Amino acid sequence: MTSTIEAPHTMSATELAAVRADFPLLERTLRDGRALVYLDSGATSQKPDVVLDAEQDFYLQRNAAVHRGAHQLAEEATEAFEDARARVARFVGVDDDEIVWTTNATAGINLVAYAMSNASLGRGGEAARRFALAPGDEIVVTEAEHHANLVPWQELAARTGAVLRWIGVSDDGRLRVDQLDQVVGPRTRVIAFTHASNVTGAITDVAPFVAAARRVGALTVLDACQSVPHLPVDLHELGVDFAAFSGHKMFGPTGVGALYGRRELLAAMPPVTTGGSMVEVVTMEATTYAPPPQRFEAGTQMVSQAVAMGAAATYLSDIGMTAIAEHEAHLARLLLDAVASVPGVRVIGPTDTADRLATVSFVVDGVHAHDVGQVLDDAGVAVRVGHHCAQPLHRRFGVAATARASAAVYTTDEEIEVFREALSGVRAFFGLEAPASNEGAA
Amino acid sequence: MTTAMEQLYQQVILDHAKHPHGRGLAVAPVSGVLSAESHQVNPTCGDEVTLQVDVDDSGVVRDVRWEGQGCSISQASVSVLHDLVVDQPLATVGDLGATFRALMQTKGAGLGDEDAEDALGDANAFTGVGKFSARVKCALLGWVALSDALIKTGASADKENA
């Protein structure tokens, strides 16, 4: 699907400077006046002015309750809210009514899992039967999943008696697509998998997963958190049934995310959170539910954040996702080269740039990831340390924790050089030799 | 490196991290003492420690054994804890734990209390950790395991006075 980008990055120095100027936080300094080198965009991205302005503008100019009230302000607020939904839908290649607002990606995945749970209890009637799980049915995940796309499925299995099975990960951090035939079978009801690993940076070839699911009539649920901010993503083209992503990783605010569901599936799916705003007719005896997406948006929504997430989608589209992907492929090459240049440092994940994000996790022999992070922080370099909410994947590689450098469109070559230089001093700081050979880690 | 880093990673800490004291768990029960074990994990980073403690019938900590994996701060802290509490009465161990926790809350300033500093010995090297709020949990991991294990032994600090 995604091709390797061998060409030099197409973003000029002037364009990159213009992008960076959109992110005021990147200009701040740290302790002792050091410049910030933010390589933790995989955890959360920084926010451009247009996103902050959109949220503020909503409160300053258009704040009112949406989808109720007949006054002009309520109309304008509703328009802003629905316009944001349309922007996010366009951004991922789907129709407006196929986007459900959630508080984050975790909530989106849980929404699908709990809707299946409710369907398993008979809620939603005949139409919802395809979401129902029975004892012995199977849920397939992968060993590379963020806990957000693993634990909800473990819980669903525990509630329904379904069995959790999984696809493994190869030594270079790729999903073992070759295992699909063994793992996916006639009892498989859902396949949940990541579009791009938040640890290895490996981008998944979605097609074989969708094909395997279709062969057995299973649903597909894609964790698109890490892909959507960095690659052109067309969910209709990918053919998945559901996909979840968060606003805050794609230059939007926290507190908002989106769940994509194929129209006919959302229409058949029973609600999860119930209450105001998601109903048609309520009597003391029974309630009928609104069509999607409102059926899944009970209670007052995070309107200003949704509006700002819409602005973030437009911001990304205006730069162009292809240009972003090309610039980040160049950054991935630089990050991999930087890590490879330092003796005693090992990458967890693919070391080639094909189908990979500019997200590079690594271990420094003899030095714990926390200590690595502390030395990098001393140089102003912000990386993530720990298991990155993916403990099984770390266990797969026999490590408890890694350090992770993750770039975004605003990352520069010079920043990666600061990172490289700081990384090269880590082993010496802890009194370890820096020979060409990798001596044994403690 | 900056001063803050030198304060954080004092030589004492680096030495304990490299050559930890008290490492290695007992596989068989230890006779003649009240023993208990505690396993503690720092969920944000996956650092962990399993700590065993033996208390004799006069209320003295006879031994501390542990295994763990994690950053130099967490591992060195358990090693220093071992040296501080072995052969100490429970009341003293309780005071040491409280003093160390208090030290971690001083944001690197130190307790400014000579008696407390004397009592803490090598543990004073962790004063700089308090400047880095994300690392305080690392330094406390072993102490949390010790408190938990001591509760599990059922031994009480009053025994020595009984």
- Oligomer state equals heterodimer
What is the CATH architecture term of chain B? Alpha-Beta Complex
Count of helix runs of chain B: 6
Query: Helical percent range of chain B?
Result: 40-55%
Structural class of chain B: alpha+beta
Commentary on this structure:
The complex is a heterodimer of chains A (442) and B (162). With 442 residues, chain A is of the alpha/beta class. Chain A is built from 15 helices and 15 strands. Chain A has helices spanning 13-21, 49-62, 72-91, 105-120, 151-160, 180-183, 206-216, 235-238, 263-268, 303-319, 321-340, 369-378, 391-396, 413-424, 426-429; strands at residues 37-38, 99-102, 138-142, 163-167, 188-194, 219-223, 242-246, 257-261, 279-282, 287-289, 345-348, 359-364, 381-382, 384-386, 402-406. In chain A, the strands form four sheets. In chain A, strands 2-8-7-6-5-3-4 form a seven-stranded mixed beta sheet, sandwiched between helices. Chain A has a four-stranded antiparallel beta sheet with strand order 11-12-15-14, covered by helices on one side. Chain A has a two-stranded parallel ribbon with strand order 1-13. In chain A, strand 3 (138-142), helix 5 and strand 4 (163-167) form a beta-alpha-beta unit. In chain A, helix 3 (72-91) crosses helix 10 (303-319), helix 4 runs parallel beside helix 5 and helix 11 (321-340) runs parallel beside helix 14 (413-424). The model of chain A is unreliable at 1-7 and 436-442 (pLDDT under 50). Chain B has 162 residues and is of the alpha+beta class. Chain B has a single domain, classed as Sufe protein. Chain: A, CATH 3.90.1010.10. Helices cover 44% and strands 17% of the residues of chain B. Chain B is built from six helices and three strands, in the order ααβββαααα. Chain B has helices spanning 3-8, 11-18, 72-85, 90-104, 114-120, 133-153; strands at 34-42, 47-55, 61-69. Chain B has a three-stranded antiparallel beta sheet with strand order 1-2-3, covered by helices on one side.
